[in-house]
Every structure is written in C-alpha cells, then in structure tokens.
Design a protein that fits this description.
Layout (H helix, E strand, L loop, with lengths): L8 H7 L4 E6 L1 H5 L16 H10 L2 H6 L1 H17 L4 H12 L2 E6 L5 H5 L4 E3 L2 E8 L5 E3 L2 H5 L14 E5 L8 H13 L4 E5 L6 H12 L3 E5 L12 E3 L3 H11 L1
Parallel strand pairs: 1-2, 1-7, 2-3, 7-8, 8-9
Antiparallel strand pairs: 4-5, 4-6
Helix pairs in contact: 6-11, 9-10
The structure holds 2'-O-acetyl adenosine-5-diphosphoribose (OAD).
Amino acid sequence: MSSPPQLPDELVERLRSVRSVGAITGAGISHESGIRTYRGRGGLYDDPEEGDRTVEALSAPTLVIDPDRTWAAIAGLARQAGAASPSLAHRALVEIESKVERFVLLTQNVDGLHRRAGSRNVIEIHGDILETECLGCGRVERLSFEELQACETAPRCEDCDGLIRPRVVLFGELLPADKVLRIRLELYASIPDLLLVVGTSALFPYITDPVAVAQRAGSVTIEINPEATASTDLVEYHLRGKASEYLPLVAAAL
Ligand code: OAD
C-alpha cells in the first residue's frame, strides 16, 4: 500500500512565511474534472490524426475559410467544460487566494473552472470559451454553455450580421496584449514569494519565463505534475503527483 502524499518538512517550514502567491495552471488541473488534456495518455493530441484535425479546426486560417468547422470544435470543447465541475485542486487554489495578501492565477485553460470554483484574480491567457466577439461590429457577448453547445455552425451577429468568433486564442494568433501586460505587472514587476506550476506541459515561454524569474529571485518554486515537463528543471520542488493530492496540502501549510 502506498503512503499518502506529503510535503517535505523543510518546504512546509518555508511556506509559513509566504505572503504572495502566483499559480500557473494548464489542462492537467481540469483533468480530474473530466476534461481531456491536450498531450499525454488519452489527450487530444495522443492520436496524431485527431490532434492535427483539432489544431487545424481551432486555427486562425480555418476561422476565416471554414468558420463552421471552428465552431463545431468549440461546441465540442464547450460540451466537456459544461459537463465539468471544479475539482479539489481548483478549490484548493481558492483557499490559497483567501489566505495570502496577494494572489494571481495565470491559466491556459478556457473552461472557466477556476472562476466557477471562486478564484478571483485570474488571467485567462488563452481566453474564456463562453465569450464571443462579432468580427463586424466588435460586440462582445457572454453565452451560457447551452447556447454555446448549440452553435454547431458559425453564429451571426443580431446587430450587424457579422461573423461571430469565439474569444479564445486560436492557433497562429497572438496573445491578448492586455493580458500579457498583466503577466508582466503581476508576475515580473512584483515577483510572488511562492510560484506554483500545476498540470501544464509548460511548452510556452510565457509559462516558463515567470518560473525562471521567480526561481532567480529566490522565491519558493513548486511544480505539481505526475510527469516531468519543460519547467521541472526550473523549479526547486517537483511534487510528482496529482494536483488534487498536493494543492490542498500546500493550502493547509500557508
Ligand atoms: P497539456 O495537455 O500539454 O499538459 C497537461 C499536463 O498536465 C501534462 O504535463 C500532464 O502530465 C499533467 N497532468 C495530467 N493530469 C494531472 C493531474 N491530475 N494533476 C496535475 N497534472 C496533471 O496541457 P497544457 O500545458 O495546458 O493551447 O497545454 C497548453 C496549451 O496547449 C493549451 O492551452 C492549448 C494547447 O495547444 C491553445 O489551445 C492555444
């Protein structure tokens, strides 16, 4: 029988003096809520053909050439997100936010589970699947999961009949400038005492750079992931396990 996960004593001691926390999350934190990851076993890209089809459907050129295809893929993601509820891991991050003076959560997930759990200061760098924007008049709207799931073809704007797009970052698109600025302000200009990287394969520089910056500044850096990733060598502690096992322990130690 394997023993329950524990934090190293010396880490527990260091967590006692933490006043500010940055958390970076990816698809792995929503895995325990029943949402598929992109990479790894059972992930969207596990089957290369399915992966290629998904990337193509969710890409900037496809939105222009064949918007119905992009919307069918978005409706599929919305079905998964709509059926999911926040896990223990999402709730542990809410507890962490309530315990410290300053907290920022940078997530790559578009499923909205952090906000639904109750996290407040969230940077959804890849957007929010429920938000839409009209390419004709710029009207931004927030749909319900039911409305979004019904969008099997590209919706048109009620005001100007323009094409409506999902307000998520598609493959081949730039990150939203306002959110990049928030990363700079909240993770670089003011470096948190503790930086957590949870459930992400950490493939992008905007994910690994804040980890490297925090590490160089002497902050406590922790990765929670059953696998090694591109951020493993950058952190001080790699807690090799599930987010729902380790995040509640971190929350309890603060
Ligand atoms: P990935 O699917 O690349 O990685 C998921 C990570 O979660 C892997 O490292 C897993 O080992 C880990 N994992 C799985 N279950 C876990 C658990 N219970 N607890 C902790 N970790 C777990 O997801 P992301 O890194 O989020 O971009 O992918 C980043 C981006 O790649 C996505 O936002 C998406 C994709 O292309 C866009 O759509 C623009």
